[in-house]
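Thread amino acids onto this structure.
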């Protein structure tokens, strides 16, 4: 292979630095040995030549030549990244010519299983792999998007369309009723990684450990599944890659409301006033003007077209024994809602050095800074999100008055009673800053040919702060501010001992022992203040405020000490056995309950010998496994009774120190334990051209850590004082299917398809104290105070609670009376299911947890063209569309009717099932099927090679669209986009599928270019 002069200079320079750094000293032997190192393409520059057992060595030059002083008894070890290492005795030879061959072991797919690797053919547990090839054609900015629909057993839900917003990832259902169900993320061996700050272009592969036989190696941290991410490494000749794309985002379609027909809105509003004994508030002339000139659609006022940019630059390669991967990423995303967006800057440096044939050292450093502008959750309050307020605002009141000032409230005092949503968004400045620094040091030393020691040390420093400056309407119309900062520092030290021995080419035994310690400390500080002087825009400091409301701080330390032993046995490449035991101690529990043991065992059997004569089936393997994992998902001081100390402003101005009972401790708290059984079959066909994996599983989570409300004598119902207990049980039963096939494989045309499908049935099988249901914590907006969710035995998590809607009371109905002898309703009112006392029955009316998800990914390459088509489907869930209740004149703070179908509301002469009067938000009228099929990505690219006559250069131009079409019966923006307010506590899985005004998921069109040289 032809090499250029600049390669030689670079090789020589880096080699010199490396030799100086390592302090290598050359020894002079009795003879001078010269030689040439080549591969199938020609000379290899930068190959390493080391005298075995010493640090004496050299590298090949531009033409692959080398010179070294050695004795006749020495053995030369020749190595180059990506090639099999060769050992050549010197003997009496003065000239050696060595031809390197590709390392065959690198050609067989190797899966990361935690604290080590395994060949895919040797796996016994349930592991799914996602490589960069499966998503590189899609211009994504989030790692979660790369997982969505591409790994069976993994559910990814984009809760809203805000740039930098939350994305929920779950592996094989949800276990905990109140705790976090997010999987453990391990990045280059360091646990506790963050998907949101990781640059997708830095990823080489993602291996998802799904069953307990695979996750038990992580013990207490593995109960929700494990995502192991390996970032890219450099190899071969130096390469530089640049990827830039720009994206245009927009709302696929607006929700139909009477803001499009303000004259009809005014007529209906007049009728509403008259029906309650009032007088019309719109004159005939005003209605005529609205019909002619229209009104103000606040949905249109706050939604816009967003322009985003993403730039990625990386350099990678290897020079002798040193390999490197350096990258930088900048993304600037405009939200489709005014004054919202996200910016992030990330950088990574992955360096590794093969110091000797025994010692390898790598150091990875990653840093990121993200800035989220006007978080949708932070802008929400008890009266609903900003989308909720915009969709329920008075369309007959313009944004500005005749003098160019904001109309703060409805000029008619109707519809939403909230502040002008355009003013709220434009005048509010809420900035969330996320800073993260991660390091990972990995040192591996081959003590013998069979015994290896690996040392892993990692640190993570995370700074988050929220600076909030918000306007609000009051008597003084002055702004308020708040500031919250938290800092988390953590480190991990892992010692790994691996012994591997092959006996008579029949038995292979591999033992892995791990000793590990990790520590983290969370420190948070916050204050809130109000009544800042007018004109203090964007000023976050409390000194200017006349009303300091709240000051607080938080400390949460955690420690985890662990020991793990794993044995892997292979018999004749037919029988595969893996057994694991992990022993964890967590500081969040008392000493008597601190240690937990988590075992697992898995068995696989290859039937390849039975099908060796088959023309269609190329491989067949059966697998089965069982294991247990734990969960320590409680606050560090939950075993102790604690007080909350804070500064309270009892007189509205002067804060005074005070304390209140926060929680009652439970010294007997111990682990949640999840037990899982997994069975699977792996089938390859047509010579490996296609493959199928089918797995079935059942996992049961017992002793669930749950906060239990105390009796009223403790103030439990009023002040929500709780005690944590090990109560309750949740079960998940399901199956995963993965199918891959090379439909066309020719020199010019290739078509590869991959299909993944996951089904899981979640069920709460028991609670505590004989209860069959407990209320959730998600309250309806608008001041009604109804709880919209609950947990019910025999049903999945995510259960909706509310009234059962039966249409309207008709004039011919025999309307019942209540205990006071009054009619429960009038004709035209909403009709709900009643009990024997004629009170409204509040019960379960739907569920927001999907049970079936799938993804279908197609990659087609024709000469220089490539096409990617990715379809995604989610089924078996409901959406509680409380947003629709708001525009239907529910009650509370949004009292007017803005739903388009209200033009056909009940009247004495047209007795429809659309109520003519206010109704409950929390009813089955607003529960809709959420099933959908989405074209998640369509990309087309064209690649030009050896551009302008430059060898090994490439330019790819591509266009892509995301969320191009959506097939669903749901009436809102998007069934996947639900919402949560920060003042609603509790588990997001126990309140899934509730929409109180979610930020819409945008449709995006991207145009980009990739340059490599």
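Threaded sequence (1013 positions):
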């Amino acid at each position: 292979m032809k090499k250029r002069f600049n390669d030689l200079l670079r090789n020589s320079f880096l080699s010199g630095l490396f030799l100086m750094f390592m302090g290598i000293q050359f020894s002079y032997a009795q003879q001078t040995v010269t030689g040439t190192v080549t591969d199938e393409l020609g000379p290899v520059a930068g190959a390493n030549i080391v005298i075995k057992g010493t640090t004496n060595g050299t590298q090949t030059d531009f033409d692959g030549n080398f010179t070294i002083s050695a004795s006749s008894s020495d053995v030369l070890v020749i190595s180059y990244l990506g090639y099999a290492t060769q050992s050549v005795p010197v003997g009496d030879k003065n000239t050696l010519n060595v031809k390197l061959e590709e390392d065959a072991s690198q050609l067989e797919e190797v899966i990361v299983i935690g604290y080590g690797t395994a060949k895919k053919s040797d796996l016994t547990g349930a592991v799914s792999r996602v490589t960069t090839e499966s998503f590189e054609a899609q211009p994504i900015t989030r790692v979660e998007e790369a997982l969505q629909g591409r790994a069976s057993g993994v559910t990814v839900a984009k809760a809203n369309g805000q740039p930098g917003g939350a994305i929920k990832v779950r592996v094989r259902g949800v276990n905990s009723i109140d705790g976090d169900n997010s999987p453990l993320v391990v990045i280059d061996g360091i646990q506790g990684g963050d998907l949101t700050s990781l640059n997708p272009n830095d990823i080489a592969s993602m291996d998802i450990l799904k069953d307990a036989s695979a996750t038990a190696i992580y013990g207490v941290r593995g109960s929700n599944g494990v995502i192991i991410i390996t970032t890219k490494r450099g190899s071969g000749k130096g390469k530089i890659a640049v990827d830039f794309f720009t994206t245009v985002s927009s709302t696929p379609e607006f929700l139909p409301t009477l803001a499009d027909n303000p004259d009809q809105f005014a007529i209906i509003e007049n009728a509403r006033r008259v029906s309650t004994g009032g007088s019309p508030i719109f004159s005939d002339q005003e209605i005529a003007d609205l019909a002619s000139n229209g009104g103000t659609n606040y949905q249109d006022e706050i939604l816009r077209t967003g322009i985003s940019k993403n730039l990625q630059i990386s350099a990678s390669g290897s020079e002798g024994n040193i390999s490197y991967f350096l990258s930088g990423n900048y993304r600037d995303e405009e939200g489709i809602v005014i004054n919202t967006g996200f910016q992030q800057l990330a950088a990574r440096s992955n360096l590794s050095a093969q110091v000797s044939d025994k010692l390898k050292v790598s150091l990875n450093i990653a840093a990121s800074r993200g800035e989220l502008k006007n978080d949708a959750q932070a802008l929400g309050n008890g009266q609903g999100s900003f989308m909720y307020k915009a969709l329920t605002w008075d369309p007959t009141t313009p944004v500005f008055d005749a003098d160019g000032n904001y109309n703060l409230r409805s000029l008619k005092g109707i519809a939403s009673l909230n502040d002008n949503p355009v003013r709220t968004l434009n005048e509010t400045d809420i900035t969330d800053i996320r800073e993260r620094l991660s390091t990972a040091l990995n040192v591996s030393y081959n003590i013998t040919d069979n015994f290896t020691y690996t040392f892993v040390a990692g640190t993570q420093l995370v700074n988050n702060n929220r600076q909030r400056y918000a306007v609000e309407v009051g008597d003084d119309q002055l702004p308020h501010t708040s500031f919250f900062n938290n800092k988390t520092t953590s480190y991990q030290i892992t010692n790994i001992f691996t012994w591997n021995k092959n006996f008579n080419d029949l038995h292979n035994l591999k033992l892995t022992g791990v000793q590990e310690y990790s520590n983290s400390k969370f420190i948070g500080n916050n204050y809130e203040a109000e009544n800042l002087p007018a004109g203090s825009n964007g000023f976050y400091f409390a000194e200017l405020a006349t009303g300091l409301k709240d000051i607080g701080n938080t400390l949460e330390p955690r420690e985890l000490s662990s020991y793990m032993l794993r044995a892997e046995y292979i018999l004749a490449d037919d029988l595969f056995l893996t057994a694991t035991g992990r022993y964890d101690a967590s500081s969040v529990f008392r000493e008597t309950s601190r240690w937990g043991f988590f075992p697992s065992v898995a068995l696989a059997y290859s039937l390849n010998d039975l099908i060796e004569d088959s023309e269609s089936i190329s491989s067949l393997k059966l697998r089965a496994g069982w294991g247990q994992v734990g969960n320590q998902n409680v606050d560090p001081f939950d075993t102790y009774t604690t007080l909350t100390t804070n500064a309270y402003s009892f007189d509205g101005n002067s804060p005074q120190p005070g304390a209140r009972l926060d929680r009652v401790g439970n010294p007997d708290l111990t682990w949640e334990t999840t037990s899982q059984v997994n069975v699977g079959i792996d089938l390859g066909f047509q010579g490996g051209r296609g493959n199928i994996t089918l797995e079935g599983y059942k996992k049961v989570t017992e002793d669930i850590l749950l906060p239990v409300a105390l009796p009223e004598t403790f103030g439990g119902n009023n002040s929500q004082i709780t005690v944590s207990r090990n109560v309750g049980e949740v079960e998940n039963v399901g199956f995963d299917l993965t199918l891959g096939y090379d439909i066309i494989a020719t020199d010019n045309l290739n078509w590869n398809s991959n299909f993944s499908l996951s089904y899981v049935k979640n069920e709460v099988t028991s609670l505590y104290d004989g209860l069959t249901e407990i209320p959730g914590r998600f309250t309806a907006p608008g001041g009604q105070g109804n709880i919209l969710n609950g947990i019910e035995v025999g049903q999945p998590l995510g259960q909706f609670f509310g009234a059962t809607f039966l249409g309207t009371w008709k004039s011919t109905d025999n309307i019942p009376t209540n205990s006071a002898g009054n009619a429960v309703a009038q004709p035209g009112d909403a009709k709900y299911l009643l009990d024997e006392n004629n009170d409204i029955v509040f019960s379960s009316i739907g569920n927001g947890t999907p049970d079936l998800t799938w993804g279908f990914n197609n990659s087609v390459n024709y000469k220089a063209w490539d096409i990617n088509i990715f379809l995604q489907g989610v089924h078996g869930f409901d959406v509680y569309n409380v947003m629709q209740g708001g525009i239907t004149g529910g009650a509370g703070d949004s009292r007017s009717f803005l739903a388009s179908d209200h033009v056909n509301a009940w009247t004495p002469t047209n007795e429809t099932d659309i109520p003519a009067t206010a109704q409950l938000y929390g009813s089955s009228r607003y529960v809709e099927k959420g099933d959908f099929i989405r074209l998640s990505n369509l990309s087309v690219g064209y690649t030009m090679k050896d551009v302008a006559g430059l060898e090994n250069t490439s330019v790819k131009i591509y266009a892509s669209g995301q969320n191009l079409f959506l097939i669903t019966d749901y009436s809102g923006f998007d069934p996947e986009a639900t919402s949560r307010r920060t003042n609603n506590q509790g588990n997001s899985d126990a309140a899934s599928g509730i929409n109180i005004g979610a930020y819409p998921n945008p449709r995006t069109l991207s145009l980009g270019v990739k340059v490599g040289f």
